[in-house]
């Protein structure tokens, strides 16, 4: 697999077909992340596509000193947040206790054999959007708190609090 | 007091283990495979030409089968041609074509000459007589020009 930075240099030099490598490398990760956030396959597909298009068109703005993965996840996260806001789906933390039943993601359900992992997926889906995003970015994508705070446009302290609360919530639910 | 402290420590250790296990589970969440149409639509929108790998494999297979078939057909065809025609036979055919063409040309020339003769003679009887003699001569020439075969040899008596 080619290094991101080399691929980006080639794309900037006019070889736009090299973007295929970027798509190949990140499509599943980005799609999974967005799908877990919006919990609808069609919306996730559109948002992932739009994120890639935005990344492709804004490639000149990308600063090579920073991680490309973080950059593309920032685009996808912003896009997802905008989408959820527009749909009025952003839930505040207080809504958590209501345990709003969301439609379960059949695609994810099908591929997970392990019962505990399935339960975890289910419980992640029940979290408020900002908690879910923090949990996914921190543990699934292994990002630093500082990067997450930039992605989510929130102070580091707030992200830490969200992360702590999200973890506590999840653990409680998993113990049930 | 000491027992209480050790109990608390055990509690922390248990919590740490749980946390570790929990985080491992989170990090091991499986990625969902993106639908194929994501790539297809995306590349179309970006104007990127992309030929999926399975299409590449299928095209290569199809082309190799096609080239194999063409090669076999060409080989058969060449064999068929070489069995039907020898070099001598081909030369014979060419000389035959040449003779027939020469005959046709000579007849046309004689006809043209007759036309000149017709205009040259004022008296129609003379023309008639000349045409009669000429036609007999032409017939004799044509008969003479006809090829005859004797065995494998082609004889042209003209």
Give a structural overview.
The complex is a heterodimer of chains A (176) and B (158). Chain A is globular and about 55 Å long. Chain A is 70% helix and 0% strand. Chain A folds into two domains: 1-90, RNA polymerase sigma factor, region 2, helix turn helix motif (Rna Polymerase Sigma Factor, Chain: A); 91-176, Winged helix-like DNA-binding domain superfamily/Winged helix DNA-binding domain (Arc Repressor Mutant, subunit A, Orthogonal Bundle). Chain A has nine helices and no strands. In chain A, α2 packs parallel to α4 (68-86), α3 (41-57) crosses α4 (68-86) and α8 packs across α9 (156-175). By secondary structure, chain A is an all-alpha fold. The model of chain A is unreliable at 92-105 (pLDDT under 50). Chain A has helices at 4-12, 19-38, 41-57, 68-86, 106-111, 115-126, 129-140, 145-152, 156-175. The termini of chain A are far apart. The longest helix of chain A is centred in the N-terminal third of the chain and has 20 residues, at 19-38. The longest helix of chain B has 34 residues, at 87-120. In chain B, 79% of the residues lie in helices and 5% in strands. Chain B is built from five helices and two strands. By secondary structure, chain B is mostly helical. Chain B has three domains: 1-30; 46-84; 86-158. Chain B is rod-shaped. Chain B starts with a helix and ends with a strand. Classes of the chains: A mainly alpha (176), B mainly alpha (158).
Provide a quick synopsis of the model.
The complex is a heterodimer of chains A (176) and B (158). With 176 residues, chain A is mainly alpha-helical. Chain A has helices at 4-12, 19-38, 41-57, 68-86, 106-111, 115-126, 129-140, 145-152, 156-175.
